[in-house]
Amino acid sequence: METFNKYLFVSDLEAELLDAAKSEQLDDLDAVHDWISQSIDNACIYYSDCFDIIKALNFTEFTNSGFEITNVTQAAFAALLEHVQENIDLTEVEAEIEKIQNA
Predict the structure, then answer these.
(1) Which of 9, 71, 72, 92 could connect to 50 by a Cys-Cys bridge, CB 3.0–4.6 Å?
(2) Run of H or E residues at 88
(3) CB–CB of 59/44 below 8 Å?
């Protein structure tokens, strides 16, 4: 990963989820959330990427994250999950899943 871009990560994730929903890889919101978690997990593989994520998201408060954070990978995951939850728009994805379910 080059320098981590928090806006690009969210927009790429939104596009990826929409494509997955259109190709019927996602059949409910649980699958969407699993996909999001897996994408975040993939972004946090390397320590250098984790440090970039933490820095880009200004993640300095570990106690209120809802996770037990004991290493940089967990901190990056918690920071990125919080960022995604606050900034992702799943409207189109939800509409696509509903359309497929009602077909």
Answers:
(1) 72
(2) none
(3) no
Nearest 5 degrees, angle CA 95-CA 81-CA 25? 40
Residue-wise pLDDT tens digits, 28-63: 999 999 999 999 999 999 999 999 999 999 998 877
pLDDT of residue 55: 96
Q: Tokens 């990978």 belong to which residue?
A: 73
What predicted TM-score, i.e. pTM, was given to this entire model? 0.90
Q: Domain count for the chain, please give it.
A: 1
CB-CB neighbours of 43 under 10 Å: 20
- The type of residue at 71 is N
Name the residue among 83, 81, 73, 78 with its Cα closest to residue 63.
78
pLDDT of amino acid 64: 67
Taking alpha carbons only, the member of 81, 85, 87 closest to residue 59 is 81
CA distance linking residue 49 with residue 79, whole number of Å = 13
Question: Is 16 inside any structural domain?
Answer: yes
At residue 2, the pLDDT reads 65
Range of the domain at 82: 6-101
